[in-house]
Amino acid sequence: MTRLAKGTVIGLIAGYYDVETDEGLIRTRARGVFRQKKQKPAVGDHVEIQIDDQGTSYLVKIFPRMNRIGRPAVANVSHVLLVISAVQPDFSLQLLDRFLTFFAWQKVAVTLYLSKADLLKNSAKLEQIKQDLAYYQKIGYPVYFDAETLAKELNQKIGKDQIWTLAGQSGAGKSTLLNKLKKDANQETGQISMVLNRGKHTTRKVQLFKLGKGFLADTPGFSSIDLTPIKLDQLKNYFLEFKKASAHCKFRGCLHLKEPKCEVKRLLAESEIIQSRYDDYLAMRNEIEEGRIPEYLK
Fold it and tell me: Is 124 known to sit in a ligand binding site?
């Protein structure tokens, strides 16, 4: 007799998959049929496991993915917690816009967290950063400045089976934030209810931790942002305020360049849209037209 159980892949360990199910955490292998189809389960995948009376289990089905992003990949990401540092590395609006455009293209919601504000001794510079982020808050991105408030609210924000993942440039403070959000992040996930391999494995590429009613990924996997696959005429739709304003442009296909009666250009002239956003939009257009990431961004 066999039975089926549904769950979410929360970790990959030496060829085994740790799957969180209603029965607990199950360590299992995938059926060979996935290799034949050149498919490979990823962390975040919603899957089905077949279990026999002896407790032997196999991963037999991968349910359709919402997305699969990052390197290493995380599947079914519903929200990104984007960590941007005030200093070390320095705050960058250009990098922020690249991340936001990339995730908008991937249809993933973003919440912003400013890290290392306490390390920035220049109070005027910190105030400018907060003013810059106030604009992003105005156009629809939640912004947090302290980890304690974020930790409290995340438990309510992460819905059932949702997968949130951290992202941000190297050194921005993602690991530090993770340890504040999930106190036991550096410990083992939990008891393995059915183990095929009892050996000890230490290599983990990506792992999900329970948080709220869903999961938080400990490895962001977004080390580089390649925007060149974006269709040039679609880029404007990934700037939230541009997309909203375009409903009032004279031409339906307005690219917000030299078209007459362009609402985006009008709002830009009135400082309702900040200049840096528009400049970054033009720079991204050039990047996509040339089909390569500029050397200074690699």
Answer: no
